[in-house]
Every structure is written in C-alpha cells, then in structure tokens.
Amino acid sequence: MRATRGAARAHIGAVALGAALCAAPALRPGTPWTTLALLAGLYLACELLGRRPFPVGFIGAGSFFPLLLAAAFLLPPQAAALVAVPGSLVGRAGKPPAAARRIWRAAELAVAVWAAARVHALLGGPAALGSPPDLPYALLPVCAAALAFSAVLAALDGSILLVAEQLPVRRAWRGLLPRSLAPHLVHGLAGLMMAVLWNSPYGPLAALFVLLPMYISCWVYAQYHREHAAHRATIRALVQAVDIKDTYTRGHSERVGRASVLIAHELGLDRERVEVLRFAGILHDVGKLGVPTRVLRKDGPLTPEERRVIELHPEYGHEIVRGIGFLGEARAAILHHHERLDGSGYPYGLSGRGIPECARIVAVADAFDAMTSTRSYRRGRPVPVAVEELKRCAGTQFDPQMVRALARGLERYGWFGAVTADDAQLPPPREADGAGPVPAPLSPRPPEGTEDPR
C-alpha cells in the first residue's frame, strides 16, 4: 500500500512538473496578463461557488470547461495553462487526501488546456477569431482543440486510476474518451461563443452571458440525476430488505428486472416504459416483506394456510409502493404479476387483456428466472428447456406475445444471469430416498394445490 501511495505521489509530481514546464514561458514578456487575470479570477469565482451548499453550489466541475476552452482560444498556450490553477487549488476536493487531489486537478487541467491552446494555435485559430471572426472555418480549430483537451484529460485520468487505484490496464482507460468527447465538443462551441463575444466591441462582460444558460442547463441536468439517484437508492433499499428476509431468492429480483427489460425492448416500448418495467421486475416480490420469515424459509411443502399467506404478497407489495409516485404502472405489475391469462391466478383472478401489460411481462420474466435458477429444493433448468415450458403454458398462464418476445431477446442477446454466485452457495437439492436429486416440476406453476408460491 505504501508503494502504491508513493507511486501515486510520484505520478502527481511528474504531471505537476509537466504543467509547470508548459506554463513557464508565460514569464517572458508579451503575456496578456490582464486577460489571463480576468479569466483566472472568473474560474476561481466559479470554483468557490461550486464549494457552496445547494442551491448555489449546483455547478459541477465540467460546467467550467467552456471557460477554460475560451481561455485556450484567447490566450497563448503558456498563459492558458495558468487559468485553471488558482481555482483548482481551492476547489472541491472530494475524498481525502485533499491537497494531493487539488494539485492533481490543477496539473491535469493545466496540461489539457495547454494542449488545446497549442492545437488551436497550430490550426490558425487565433487569426480566425479576429473581428469579424472567420466562420465557419473557426469551427475547425475549435473542434480540434476540444478533441485534444478531451484526449489529454482521458489519458491523465486513466493514468492516475492505473497508478493510484491499481486498476488493470484494460480497465483504466475504458470508456473515458467516448463518454467525455461529446460533452467536451459542446463545451468547445460554448467556449467559442465566449471568445467571439470577448473580442467583440461588447467586451468580456458580454462573454459572461454564455455561461448563464450553460449553468442553468447543468443545474437541470444535476437535478435530474439527483432524482434518479434517489429513485435507485429507494429501490436498492427495498430489494436489500427482501434479499435479507428471503435468502433463497437472493439475486432473483435483479434478474427478473433484466428479463423484463429484455422483453420490453423486443416489444419496442419507449425508453421511459422500459425503465418502469425494470423497476417493476426488481420490486415484484417486495410484498414478501409482509410474509412471515418462517413461511418463506420453510423446508418442505406449505400448508393451505401458509399458501394463502404467501399469496397475499402481491397485495402487500402494492401497499408498500403505493406512495412511490415515480414507479407509475410498475405498481400494477407488482399487484398483478401472479394473475393468469385463463383467470385462475391471484390475487383477483383477472384474465386476458384485463391483466395490465406490464404485469404480463413481469409474469413471464419471473417464471423464466424461477425455472432457470437453482433453488434449495431443485436445480435450475437450461434456458432452452425453460423457454419451451413457457411456450407450452402460453395462452393459459402466460401471454404468448410476451413469451415470443422473451424467446427473441434470448436468441439475440443470450442469458448470463441464470445461476448467480448466491445461487451457487445454496445447498444442493434435497435427495428423495437416496435416488438422486428431486427433479424440477414440469411446469412453472403445477396444478392448483401443488404449486409452491415461494
């Protein structure tokens, strides 16, 4: 561990030295210190605002990149490298060690801005930003500079993950550039607008108006992600509670959510409904929180009274999630995922199209995972066998359209969640009179009176 910390410090020092070498020529005469001081002061003010609690501190670090890229377009490379340094050294550090994180942030941004300014200058960008600006040619050096900025940041971010976090080489840089390239190109265009206004007769004050809509859009984006993070936290807490109570079905909820999404994609449902169906699949058994643990974990067949108790879990689940507004139609799926197409299901005996579509989807996903997962009393079946069984029960228990959609999805994408590590830790299936493992029942729901609703 000490060796890792030492390597990380050495790496940060090397990048900081590189940043200092990039900025050193700014000490020579001819540096536009007034423009540099204005841009550095503005970036410092933005970072200080970013440290304030909500609602002032809603602006993420990426929101300031248009300002840094504007500096790359307005200043020589050595001067542009200095713009991010004061703000980065006082900005939000996140986890400790704060000093090392701030020095790293200042160094990597200085190098990235220097690279962007260098590429911009090599392609004649400063001349294209004259008065009037040479449009659309000015877009070429701007986009190239944004690409250089993004590539340098991705390279440095991956390098610190490799050294400090000891991620494997194949994972350290995975996805860094593809995820950041499009946002940085947008930041580059915003930086171009700032630079054009800065050089216009209206001066630097007019350039600030470019930042305002950027910050508002970032605030809306941050609010959206906060809301979704709260949704995920709510669902995660409920699923963890079910998994703790019913250890035999641990991991089942997540797999039903994946299978539900697979079906929804094959049906061509829109993105919002796909997300709701994922929630429905994950939470379909949340009502088990209302079922006594001794019943859920009972070895052996259930008594008629115990069966009636377990068959109340869809109604319990619906009551638990009734007040969670973002679930939408997922609440109906939780209530009706044990209804059958022929009307013999529970809790209300709905039939045919009277069963909500989302419930018909989750019913197929639930039965599929129940058949392919290993349980305490039987081993999981192969995926093709489970699909054939679903097809056999289509039209009576399951909606044929949903079964066909699942079969198409499995054929196209495969299924990698049939048996999880949690399943593998379960005891082997019980033996019957020494004759070997008890075979799985021939149907996900045997005739009434023999089904185990767990």
From TrEMBL:
CDD domains: HDc. Residues 249-371 form the HD domain. Residues 438-447 have a biased composition (Pro residues). Keywords: Membrane, Transmembrane, Transmembrane helix. Residues 227-422 form the HD-GYP domain. The chain crosses the membrane at residues 56-75, 138-164, 176-198, 204-222. PANTHER family: CYCLIC DI-GMP PHOSPHODIESTERASE TM_0186-RELATED, LIPOPROTEIN. This is HD-GYP domain-containing protein.
